[in-house]
Design brief:
2 strands; mainly alpha; elongated
C-alpha cells in the first residue's frame, strides 16, 4: 500500500498517524518515516484497512486495543556519549 493510501485509510478510520501509532504501540516517527519510501509495510497497511472498515461499519475498535495492553516500543538508537544504539562501546586505543 502506498503511504498516501495508508493516510487515506487512517482518515477513513478517523485516525491521525500519532493516534494510530499509540494504538499499535509504535513511535509516530517510525510510521511517518515510511513516507520517504512511498509505501508502508504490509502489516501496517492491513491494520489501517481493517480499522477503516471497522469505522465504516460502526464497530468499536478502541475497546479491542484497550484490552490488549500493548506497551509502546522504545526508540532505537537512543545514543548517549560512549554508547551506540544502546550498546556500550569499548575504548579504541591507537598506537602513535
Amino acid at each position: 500500500m502506498t503511504y498516501d493510501d495508508f493516510i487515506a485509510e487512517l482518515g477513513k478510520a478517523g485516525l491521525t498517524v500519532r493516534r494510530f501509532a499509540e494504538l499499535v504501540g509504535m513511535q509516530p516517527n517510525s510510521i511517518s518515516n515510511n513516507k520517504k519510501k512511498g509505501e508502508v509495510p504490509g502489516h501496517l497497511a492491513i491494520i489501517a484497512a481493517l480499522l477503516a472498515e471497522f469505522a465504516a461499519n460502526n464497530i468499536d475498535y478502541e475497546s479491542v486495543f484497550s484490552r490488549m495492553n500493548l506497551s509502546r516500543k522504545k526508540p532505537r538508537g537512543a545514543a548517549k556519549p560512549g554508547k551506540f544504539a544502546g550498546d556500550k562501546q569499548a575504548v579504541l586505543e591507537l598506537e602513535e
